[in-house]
Amino acid sequence: MRRLLLLAVLPLAACSGDIDLTNASIAEVASATASIEKPVAGQWRTDTRLVSFDAGADKTPTAAAIREQVGDTSTTEACLTDEEAAKPLFGDLSTAAGANCRFRRFTLKGEQLDAEMACRNAGGETLTVSQKGRYSPSAVDLTATVRRGGVAAQAGGMVTRIVAKRTGDCAEE
Fold it and tell me: How far is CA 7 from CA 50, 92, 145, 154, 162, in A?
């Protein structure tokens, strides 16, 4: 799962031109970001810190365990291969394409990203994911906020800070 988190954040790297979209579909953002410089393959170190967690009305042991992790930082090391680095930037969002999701905003100017995607299901429940931070082909420093709304038991959210950087070439296997 941690490797997936690394791969999820790395695709948004330095941009060859500014992008400023409002109320854009996933396909529109994917098209606009096609020229974004991909991350550099190699060994990456990722520090992930759970800044805050609101379980809403969820009083389960799982929610309590996550709440206990607030303030903790986990560190992972992963090899990003040439093949992984070359994948389409928004390939992982393809499952959200049918979930009534739109980017309220997607702004990438230089290495600064400010993006927010909102999804709404048929029952009126919402999921909003925003990312703000700095990206380059060899480093990421972002704050990701996830908020759920709608049914009271499902309301809540979390804030995570992710700092990743390329530390060198992958170890030979």
Answer: 18, 9, 17, 27, 12
